[in-house]
Amino acid sequence: MLKENYYLTNFHSLLEFVGQNYAGLLNDSEQQWLAAITSASESAQRLYVRLSNRRASVFRIAKLAYPEIESISGSALELSERGLASLDAPDDLLELVAAFTKPELIKLLLLQDQRHLNRADLVDHIINRQLPEDLERLQLADMRHSQQWIAISGLDSYTVFKLCFFGNCYQDMSEFVLRDLGVFNYEAYRIDSQSRVFHSRAQLDAHLQYFHCASMLELVDHSDVNALLQVEKKLPVIKTYDNHLNRRVDRLRNTIARQLERLNCLDEALAIFSQSDQPPSRERQVRLLMRKACYTEAHAQCEKMLENPVNSEEVQFVETITPKLNKQLGLKLTQKTRFRPLTSKLTLSRSDARVEMIARDFYAQFGECFYVENSLINGVLGLFIWDIIFSPVEGVFFNPFQSAPADFYQPEFALKRSALLEARFLELDEPLRFSARVWENYESKQRVMNPLVNWNYLTDDLLSLALIRIPVNDWRVLFKRVMQDFKNHTNGFPDLILFPGKGSYEMLEIKGPGDALQKNQKRWMSYFSEHRIPYRVVHIRWAKQTSPV
Q: What is the model's pTM?
């Protein structure tokens, strides 16, 4: 149960954190906003927070109902006097109409003939209707002046404070509420003055500009080439060493370039992809160069990818595309042995359940069988290196609502913690010590968020059998590949794991009729084969239904 003043307490926590850690980066306008809001009465602060966290931009005071605020109209007046709100009626017609209910609009604007319309269509009618100018002005003036209004000011400053606190513009004050209600439980990692996301005003402004561009991209017409190019031109020019911003900007570049590619603007797409270091920019460049018949340039790009691949996906792409390129260039075609996973076929009776669950129930007659997909191997690894994931590395934890360090999905995660990880993996030489650590974290960290642990699937019975039946050397080689690329190697695992009555284990990928292996699944199975990890692809066929006599 939340306390009555929960939202104001959370707001003060945010202001205090930013004031202590980022005071030197705040401009005059933001400093003035902070002074104005902190010196306001508690009732005025409550009203400000309540309204600033709502989606609407302007409100009718008579329609606001907050029992904990003594005088809403008085608080509104105080906010206005402090420059934190405007009491003017909205000039924008859409804002004005949005403040009234459908029945109110019908009554005020004499729209009884349109009462059958839904609200969206009614608003569209109001915006586009043709009325004598005098009549329309009179009706709208009556709507404006018959009410007391309030629109919150200083939201740009509030956005800066939230960006400094969260490190992004997609988290908001609801994070506090979800934590306090126990919906999300976060690890208690260390946050201090050295954990700041931003170290200069220029860096802060660059991130603000990025989020502004991301919002613009959501609003523009994605079939409008010029609009897309304008968004790309507004992306911040990165002049400081900021991997986090680099990745954000490059991902947005990739999104814009991919859309331009779909619109057949090949030169524009190629130019933007070439500025990005984030996958799949190099793959898309090769594909674009091939569409433009620039096969020599495409081949050179492939060679660069093989020399220094960003991930295993790039390697697989080059291996797949090289025969086509060599053919176009008249180069010798090299035949590579095609990997074929171990497979079997199984005929089952169809039911309303998912095919994986039908298969699980069938295999349960041979031992213990669990639906695990990506949860088991990842989950045990997460439990095994839990404290290392949340170790106090500078610059990776900057707010209390992170399920993972900021660098978790980047190569630098393992590099920065290499000594800790190397020492931890020595414990795999002692199976009892390995199991004890996993069990200790499983019991003490229940329902605490971890990027590798899915508590909905990791049960006592599953974990017990897995730690007994799967040899430590198998855990070692599985963990090794997951940690090479957390972003791409934490998925693609088989659906089921079977622990036969006779011992050992086997991972089973279930494929229903017409279903095929994905590329990431094939990569895992090739790895399984190389390291003798027991697995199998099971192709399900449905038994023919006999017609009743």
A: 0.86
